[in-house]
Amino acid sequence: MFWVGSRLIQEIMIKTISIVLTIIFFSLALPGCVSVVDKNEAATAYFNLGNAYFELEKYNEAVNAYARAIELDSSFERASYNLARLYLETNRIDEGVDLLQELDRKDEGNSITLNTLAYAYTLKGEEEKALEIYEKVLQRSPYDKNALYNTGILLWNKGDREAARRPFHSLYEIDPKDSIILYNLGLLEIELENREEGIKYLELYLEGKPSDTDAMIVVGDAYRDEQRYGDALENYDKVIAGGTAEPELYFKKAYILLTAIGDTEKGLEALEQAISGEYKEKELYQQLADDPELIEKEQIRQFLSDNGLIEEKSELEEE
What we know:
Elements: H1 7-27, H2 36-55, H3 59-72, H4 77-89, H5 93-106, H6 111-123, H7 127-140, H8 145-157, H9 161-174, H10 179-191, H11 195-208, H12 213-225, H13 229-241, H14 247-261, H15 264-276, H16 282-290, H17 297-306, H18 315-318
């Protein structure tokens, strides 16, 4: 999709529409004498008119213009394709599918048409059908980025993470610096509990996107799960230093400091930040209080109890 970004662009599009309408008028001014060349010129003019309306988000007018272009020249595949895309964008998905299928019959195996048809089936919620079509694309073009990426996403969404790895790794081989691929591959590997691999891809991603705090937190969590607590705290502290940390992050930091690291002073400071930030996940606070690795257990439990975050146990329960 193209979006109008300024009044100047709108003015240019309006002028374009005026010019195109003039061309159409002169092309079809004498209907009884219209030649094939004139019809082709008029079809092209209507196609351009549809594009201009599309830019202005005047979708009904764009549909009419593309339809008129096809009426004048039934072989005008670019107009048919743009009309199909417009149907998809305006939630007329079944009409878009019909048009794309017709285009595929005329030019069987066209990867652009098939990729768009697969996307249409995804919009319809027919993911298996979409996967079948992407597979057809990949049989002809094994390195088609669009088909590889969407295949990976669809497989991932249906829970088949192992199968999703293959297209994402193929994309990484094609372009090892693609930030979108690095990010998704990192998340996927972590979900598969291949945390070292996931960390590797996300750190490569962060080299190009050093301000992405969400990615930093994911990496920090992965380091924590790998018991690399110093590296986890380093990532958490980077986010905190940027001033965008949610109170949950202070709790994660406090948990590490009060269990694995053994720094009561800094741990309590982080815990106070979590509490003052209205982080009130009592189950997690209780988990911290019951953790056998918790240092200064009585002090921390009393602190949590005083803040109403855990229930103070009786002596009998303690025993």
